[in-house]
Amino acid sequence: MASSKKKILWLTHEANLSGANIAMLEYANALKDEYDFHFIQPHQGNMVEVIQKQNFGSAIIYQYAWAVSADLPIVKNKIKVFVRSLIAICKTCILIFKEKPSTVFTNTQVPFIASIAAYIMCKPHVWWLHEFGEEDFGFTIGFGKKQKAYAWMQKSKLFIANSKAILNKFQALMPVANIKCIYQPVTVKHFEVIEKKTAPYLMFGQLIKNKGHLEVLSALAKVDNRFNKELLHIIGPSEDAKYVETLQNFIFENGLTSNVKIKTGFFIKEEILPQYNFLIVASKAEAFGRVIIEANKMGLKVIVNNSGGAPELVNETNGILYNTEMDLIKIFNGNCTFNNSENKLAYDENEEIIKLKKYLLEINA
Question: How far is CA 321 from CA 207, 221, 296, 312, in A?
Fold first, then answer.
């Protein structure tokens, strides 16, 4: 029996389970009572299995990210890029004809294929803005021709920004774009409350340069009375062995060996976060900061760099903001007081989904 629900065709920016893709799946689950979903991956990856386990439709249409950065491979053969993109557009148009979605989504600002296919097939298109781009990941969209890229993007019906900081940046770049801010739902599975903590402070997530680890270590090195206590654990996946080596060298050279431990790899957040009292988010350009919400839901207070979109998630009950290294030193020395009350999120997840449903109805009216 055919479903009576409207369908959304959603292009992912990569085929592995990244933060933006986790957010995408959480939105899909929040909307699945009213919408069916069919996802497009740009290459092979573990997202295929994850999507199939949740009984969503799935397809692989090979395509390039329309962006350039130090971390993205440069494709020098422009003819190859053009041909691959043309094939991907045609295949996406065919998929739109077959699946008959009411709306087409693109996850992040990197892939452009779905927006072009939606335009050709006269379907409303929505961009999901999960990152600043240049400030946090160092990439420029549109193969470096960002002004032309932004001009094209404004043909879409709707943009969803995951923070007001993201909304403000892109509204300035695309004045006629219809951009709305929606704070995303964040799912936390069952976890055990741990009374005896492993260490007071945790930095959890990817070990990459823009996450501020060195700044936090520099502050910790200036703290009085560290003794031999374990104070900070840095835990998360890393594909940059040189960066991890830089952190380890700093720890050794500044006498922090007994105070700081680094563990690399993939870890289950519900097993790790409850072992600590405080989560530190030191990024200068965090678009949203889902780990802040995860930590708050598991009882941790947060210590957040007052920059980017992350401060929007902090209130008087759930954490504290800092601006300078001296602020961090004061926190580590115990000179800042945290609210002992129960954490309250800075937004209501259900209300955000209600707003999202309203915006989707408006562009399909």
Answer: 21, 20, 14, 10
138 CB neighbour count, 10 Å cutoff: 17
Q: Is 337 a residue whose pLDDT tops 90?
A: no
- Please say whether the dihedral angle defined by the alpha carbons of residues 118, 120, 123 and 129, taken in this order, is positive or negative: positive
* Degrees, nearest 5: CA angle 355-361-365: 150
- List strands edge to edge, sheet with 319-322: 260-264, 232-236, 199-204, 276-281, 301-305, 319-322
In the chain, the DSSP E strands lie at 6-11, 35-41, 57-60, 67-68, 103-107, 125-129, 140-141, 158-161, 179-181, 199-204, 232-236, 260-264, 276-281, 301-305, 319-322
State pLDDT tens for residues 280-291.
Answer: 999 989 999 999
Note whether 6-183+349-363 and 199-332 share their fold.
Answer: yes
Residue 344 region, left (φ>0) first, then alpha (ψ -120 to 50), else beta?
beta
Give the three-state DSSP class for 199: strand
How many whole angstroms separate alpha carbon 121 and alpha carbon 91?
12
pTM summary value: 0.92
**Tokens matching residue 237:** 């996946």
Token couple for 275: 């072992």
The predicted pLDDT at position 239 comes to: 85
* Spans of all domains in the chain: 6-183+349-363, 199-332
pLDDT digits (tens, 9 = 90+) for 51-62: 999 999 999 999
- pLDDT, residue 171, reads 98
CATH of domain 6-183+349-363: 3.40.50.2000
End-to-end CA distance of the chain: 26
- The confidence score (pLDDT) of residue 137 equals 83
CA 280 – CA 360 distance, rounded (Å): 35
Considering the domain delimited by 199-332, tell me its CATH architecture: 3-Layer(aba) Sandwich (3.40)
pLDDT of 57 reads: 95
Mean pLDDT in the chain?
Answer: 93
| pLDDT attached to residue 122 | 97
Element (H, E) at 26: helix 19-31
Q: Per residue in 315-333, pLDDT tens? A: 999 999 999 999 999 999 9
